[in-house]
Amino acid sequence: MKPSRIVEFSTLEAKCAYLDNKHMRMEYKFIENCPETFSQQLVQRGWRRFGEYYSRPNCVDCNDCLSLRIDATNYRFSKSAKRTIRKNQKTRFLIQKPTITIQHLNLYEKYHKYMESKKGWKHYRMSPNSYHELYVSGAMKFGKEILYFVDDKLVGVDLVDFFTDGLSSIYFFYDPDYAHLSLGRFSMYQQIYIAQINKLPWIYLGYYVERCPSLNYKADYKPFEIMKNKPSLEESPIWN
Question: Candidates 3.20.20.120, 3.40.630.30, 3.40.1160.10, 2.20.28.10; correct CATH number of 69-228?
Answer without folding.
Answer: 3.40.630.30
